[in-house]
Design goal:
The protein has 394 residues and is α/β, with parallel strands linked by helices. It has 12 helices and 14 strands. The strands form 5 sheets. A 5-stranded mixed β-sheet has the order 2-1-3-4-5, with helices on both faces. It has a 3-stranded antiparallel β-sheet with strand order 12-13-14. About 2% of the residues have low confidence.
Length: 394
């Protein structure tokens, strides 16, 4: 029978290039998911517990207690303490991590297994006190998979309960609005929306200017020119910002709730609600800045401008009110709108209006010639003078 000599495995410390008798470098991870006083008290207790236990173990060298306060464990993106701990583990500064339980470490099975395997490859153990699991044990990964799934299910159930609570609040007409960047409103001591007079006047100006014929782009330019700040406190205005204000039902005192919804509890990604979840429309939920008739008139004006025929691949074109003849000239040959263009430069510069269809597709599509702006102005004056003369005749 052949002789067999057993060559024992080297101690982990020796494999890491350290002395076999070197102390185990141990850290702890503590986390609480809310900022309330009871949870923060628990957090302090965890920090003191781990600091004392590690320092009192003669075979261990205390590294640090990494921690996150008021941070959810559903994903790890915003957990600065956790991410810094993982970086130190990967840099070879830590041999073992101690934490209270799997749910304190992570409630996402994929994240749990990812970091367990990542640290295991570096020879770093994670010890979960509550479950009494050391990830470097042979049974560690099986138990981690099982218990991690249970922790994820617990988080899923909590998410569902939270959604139901919010839904019940919506059904009762209780409005939840983030007022931090909400131009025209703030909240009082009771958490109710109240009007900020100076900002409300800006909102009314925006509605008034659109109904006077200005485009959102022009309104934004004017607000920026006048040094008026946005709801977020910025000096730069965009037409998209103006459009959002003009289409926000909250300015007429109503509130459409659940405009967005969370796709899943792990990613926490929110997307526009296009019918995937119930919505709730609450009338007269808070003080209005514009009357309902004015709000309705603005929505009708948006619809009118959208339906104006121009020429583009979609059969429509964008709205502009920059020039006196904008939106007022249509080609008698093909029905497309006219667009203003500059010809020449310097002293020879002049402006003409051209059929958009002909401009894009050539004379084969439309034979309408360009019209000089000066001729249009003269024709307009003749028509106006004729109307005035006819009126005076009567």
């Amino acid at each position: 029978m052949a002789n067999v000599t057993v060559i024992p495995a080297k101690p982990m410390q020796q494999l890491k290039g350290l002395e076999a008798t070197a102390k185990l470098r141990v850290c702890a991870y503590a986390r609480v998911s809310t900022d309330n006083e009871e949870q923060l008290s628990s957090y302090q207790a965890q920090v003191e517990h781990y600091t004392s236990n590690i320092k009192n173990n003669p075979a261990w060298e205390f590294v640090e207690v990494y921690s996150d306060e008021g941070i959810s464990g559903t994903n790890t993106k915003k957990r600065e303490g956790f991410n810094r701990m993982i970086e130190d583990c990967m840099a070879g500064k830590i041999d073992m991590v101690i934490t209270k339980s799997i749910s304190r470490f992570a409630r996402n099975t994929l994240d749990t297994l990812k970091y367990v395997r990542q640290l295991k490859e570096k020879g770093v153990a994670i010890y979960f006190e509550k479950e009494n699991i050391n990830t470097l044990d042979s049974k560690g990964e099986f138990l981690i998979t099982l218990l991690g799934s249970l922790a994820q299910e617990e988080s899923s159930n909590l998410s569902q309960i939270t959604k139901m609570g919010i839904s019940y609040r919506f059904q009762e007409g209780k409005v939840l609005v983030n007022h931090n960047k909400f131009l025209g409103y703030t909240k009082d001591e009771q958490g109710q929306l109240v009007i900020v007079p100076e900002e409300a006047e800006v909102v009314r100006r925006i509605y008034r200017e659109l109904l006077d014929g200005k485009s959102p782009y022009k309104i934004a330019s004017n607000l920026q020119r006048d040094g008026i700040l946005t709801g977020a406190g910025g000096s730069r205005w965009y037409d998209s910002t103006v459009i959002k204000i003009l289409k926000n039902e909250k300015y007429q005192g109503d509130a459409l709730l659940q405009k967005t919804y969370t796709v899943d509890f792990l990613s926490k990604k929110r997307v526009k609600n296009t019918g995937h979840a119930a919505q709730y429309y609450v009338e007269d939920s808070h003080p209005a800045i514009v009357i309902k008739e004015e709000f309705a008139a603005v929505q009708l004006e948006f619809e009118r401008r959208t339906n104006m025929r121009g020429y583009s691949k979609s059969g429509r074109s964008s709205f502009t009110s920059e020039y006196p003849f904008s939106r007022k000239l249509f080609c008698q040959n093909c029905g497309s709108k006219f667009r203003r263009q500059a010809w020449g430069s310097g002293k020879n510069r002049k402006y003409v209006w051209r059929c958009i269809n002909r401009e894009i597709n050539g004379v084969e599509s439309c034979g309408m010639k360009s019209i000089r702006e000066k001729d249009l102005e003269k024709a307009f004056l003749r028509a106006m003078n004729k109307l005035i003369a006819n009126k005076e005749a009567f």
